[in-house]
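Re: the 263-residue chain
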Amino acid sequence: MFKQSILIFITAAFSLLTSTVIAAGDDDHELHTEDIQPWRIGAEIFVNSTLFETDFGDLSGGSFVTDDPGVDVNIQKGTFTSGNWLRFQPVGQLLYWDGEQWRETVPNGERIEITDALDNAISFSAGGVSETAGVIGEIDNSGGLHEHLSFRIFDASNTPNGSPGAYRIQLKLFESAPQSDTSISIAASPIAIVLNRGLAPEHFESAVSAAASLDDNAAFVAETGIVTIQRVKAFDTHYKVKLQYIGDNQFQLIEAEEMIDNP
């Protein structure tokens, strides 16, 4: 009965989940080549995507640094106010891809730091994120901005280093007056950035595809055919489950872990 309840839930959700993964694959080239491109309409900030990917290993910075993705305002779609600051608020926590699923723990105390335009280090770790918002830059006279901030990964010894894998951070864009934390405009949803640390391209793309579905509570890895649902209710109990896709919208339950912190 438990298996039947879970499978009914998955069958209903599968078409939406796979369309999300396919869409991520279709936009793969765009996500590699384009910066984050925000624009403003009224008090709301919009972006060209909510998922971006990049690789550590800048030629100038070394194996554990990158300055991508950059931020390039799309002034054709909507400008910001000249002289204001475009900023980012870190949200959530650092997640780690272990080759099969996204985890809330990291192998060796890794954290990612973004050095903002004021030379502040904004930190993302498995334990949480900095409370301080970062500054991307000052809006120019045309209402635009184009900046590249530095992303660095450190291990538990505070050394630039990181276990091989993929790392996911989230941030929310907002606009403020200079020296102010009060938002004038803000994005409705956060942006996720997936950073590659030493994975082969095909393995990294599996991590990116799975990351595309994280906010939907389910992640499907096309390479393995495994779908992971972070929380599903059956018989008044919540479970984290894994299922194997066997074709024709059919799944086989392979793992069910009861959630200790049931609401």
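The two ends are 22 Å apart (CA to CA).
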